[in-house]
């Protein structure tokens, strides 16, 4: 039987799971995981907010991009963090994401496309910047589609969008965002790899100011007890606004908490 806990909001952080070894939050879009020299003006960070809420130091064991929301897992000790890091490295963690992408994507498929190393100017200062492209695999399943009678692009009289579930096998930097761009279905709201015309349309028409990529579920074995652990993160108001506007709530029902 999987271990699951209902979310509760404390100290501006949505705690979705906590025990004596672990704590998981539903990270909001736009929140940095930890302090970065690249964002010196920021005052709020998921790691510090989580630490202040649970009353002990926490250790990140995986990443979520700043504009991505959803399940973010921390360990409460360095020893548990090492174990979890090894679990992620060994691909023993199942991750599911929800995204809204441009265009009508096929019902299901797999993207097997190696990604070049993208170093951070500071975090990867001493890394090998010339390393070869790394294997990257993403599976997708289309959940719903809509065609709007709006010419966002001059090439088409209408605009098409798909709601997709994304399941990465690997964990490369910006993997889902880069893979969706590679197959010509960029994620809506992605200012680095997306289509700015559609991002602007969602901002003006639906007041959606975020990237529509959400880490909906994380499944793994507990590093201490070995029991199956299923962590789920609910969607924010902007996400729900899109699902309601496009009549996608029923299609996404199985993926909502």
Describe the fold and architecture.
The structure is a single chain. By secondary structure, the chain is of the alpha+beta class. It has a single domain (8-255), classed as Pseudouridine synthase, CATH 3.30.2350. The chain has helices at residues 46-54, 78-89, 175-182, 196-206, 237-245, and strands at 8-10, 13-18, 22-27, 59-60, 69-75, 94-102, 108-112, 137-148, 159-168, 213-221, 228-232. Strands 1, 2, 3, 4, 5, 6, 7, 8, 9, 10 and 11 form an eleven-stranded mixed beta sheet that branches. The relative contact order is 0.19.
Could you give a short description of this structure?
Helix content is 19%, strand content 29%. It has 257 residues and is an alpha+beta fold.
């Amino acid at each position: 039987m999987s271990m699951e806990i209902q979310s509760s909001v404390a100290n501006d952080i949505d705690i979705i799971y906590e025990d004596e070894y672990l704590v998981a939050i539903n990270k909001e879009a736009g929140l940095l995981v930890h302090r970065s020299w690249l964002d010196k003006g920021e005052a709020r960070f998921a790691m510090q907010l989580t630490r202040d809420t649970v009353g002990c130091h926490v250790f990140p064991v995986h990443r979520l991009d700043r504009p991505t929301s959803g399940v973010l897992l921390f360990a409460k000790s360095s020893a548990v963090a090492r174990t979890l890091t090894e679990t992620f490295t060994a691909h023993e963690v199942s991750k599911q994401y929800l995204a809204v992408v441009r265009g009508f994507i096929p019902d299901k498929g797999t993207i097997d496309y190696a990604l070049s190393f993208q170093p951070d100017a500071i975090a990867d200062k001493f890394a090998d910047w010339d390393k070869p492209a790394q294997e990257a695999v993403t599976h997708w399943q289309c959940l719903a589609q809509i065609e709007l009678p709006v010419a966002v692009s001059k090439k088409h009289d209408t605009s098409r969008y798909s709601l997709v579930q994304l399941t990465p096998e690997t964990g490369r930097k910006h993997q889902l965002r880069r893979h969706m761009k590679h197959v010509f279905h960029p994620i809506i709201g992605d200012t680095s790899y997306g289509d700015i015309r559609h991002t602007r349309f969602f901002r003006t028409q639906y007041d959606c100011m975020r990237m529509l990529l959400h880490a909906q579920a994380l499944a793994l074995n507990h590093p201490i007890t070995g029991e199956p652990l299923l962590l789920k993160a609910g969607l924010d108001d902007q996400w729900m606004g899109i699902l309601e506007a496009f009549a996608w709530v029923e299609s996404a029902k199985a993926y909502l908490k």
